[in-house]
Write a structure and sequence with these properties.
Blueprint lengths: L1 E3 L9 H10 L4 E5 L14 H12 L4 E10 L9 H10 L3 E6 L10 H16 L4 E5 L9 H11 L5 E5 H6 L4 H5 L6 E6 L12 H7 L11 H7 L6 E3 L11 H20 L10
Parallel strand pairs: 1-2, 1-8, 2-3, 3-4, 4-5, 5-6, 6-7, 7-8
Helix pairs in contact: 1-2, 1-10, 4-5, 9-10
């Protein structure tokens, strides 16, 4: 399954994202329901928009791969997230993206409380058929693949997985071989993009992740090696926020993301570019 991540085409409305994903023949979309960036739409605050999203999705062949994004911490109010989880379940979403607090705010002494919140979230999401997936980032408290594995083990709840972002894997010191060594059932999703082999200065890594990625095949990340070790049934999401491409329309950015990613997949697995993959 190939999914279009919101960051690839933001800023835009969720309806524009859905239309662009359908036009580019993606199999699925990710939806950002609560604001993260100043330009994000607050979907959960707009009942009319939520119904419009349901209607638009029902008129397409698209599924919802994931919902963005929850920041998990020791004081997260899981009960307050129930409306979000309920709506995500109504959309048929498969995963819920979860990150930790920023690195400067993450206190190791608070990790046991955070882990309990994570287990509580896993249980609440399971009731709605959704799996929370930890996305590790070098500038957050859960910074590496090993960190994500550790907190999931400590949470002790089976309804938790990991989102492997190709950029975050590389910038945190991980490799495709790192992925090959973990149980495949831990991987909820793989997010694809490209970037130069060398990381920017540490203070610039968050900006690179949010605004300065490259389309698959345009950089030097070991994407072919990553795809070679990822089980074929793991969903793939294209997350390419690229300020240099902001002059392109939402549809043009989605089409380029799909085209570049299908060419990459074909070079590794021989799948015919342009073909939709099943769920």
């Amino acid at each position: 399954m190939l999914s279009l991540s919101p960051l690839t085409v933001l800023p835009c409305s969720p309806l524009e994202l859905i239309d662009a994903a359908e036009a580019a023949e993606f199999d699925a979309v990710g939806l950002r329901l609560v604001p993260v960036l100043p330009t994000d739409v607050d979907v959960m605050a707009d009942a009319v928009l939520r119904r419009a999203i349901e209607r638009r999705l029902s008129a397409t062949t698209l599924r919802v791969l994931d919902i963005e994004v929850i920041r998990i911490g020791p004081d997260t109010d899981i009960a307050a997230l129930v409306p979000l989880l309920q709506y995500a379940g109504e959309l048929g979403a498969r995963n819920l993206a979860v990150t930790s607090l920023a690195g400067a705010e993450y206190e190791p002494v608070d990790e046991p409380r955070m882990v309990r919140k994570l287990a509580e979230l896993g249980e609440a999401a399971a009731r709605r058929g959704i799996q929370p997936m930890i996305e590790f980032m070098v500038f957050r408290g859960i910074a590496t693949l090993d960190d994500a594995i550790r907190v999931i083990a400590r949470a002790g709840h089976q309804n938790l997985g990991i989102c492997v972002d190709a950029l975050h894997l590389q910038r945190s010191g991980g490799t495709p071989e790192s992925i090959s060594r973990i149980p495949p059932q831990l991987i909820s999703c793989v997010q694809l993009c490209d970037a130069p082999a060398s990381a920017p200065a540490p203070q610039d890594i968050p900006r690179e992740a949010r605004y300065d990625r490259l389309y698959p095949g345009e950089g030097a990340l070991p994407l072919r090696e990553l795809l070679a070790v990822v089980p074929p049934d793991i969903p793939l999401s294209v997350e390419v926020p690229c300020a240099a491409q902001s002059g392109l329309s939402v549809t043009e950015r989605a089409d380029k993301a799909a085209r570049c990613t299908r060419e990459l997949i074909a070079s590794v697995h021989g799948r015919r570019p342009g073909s939709r993959q099943g769920m």
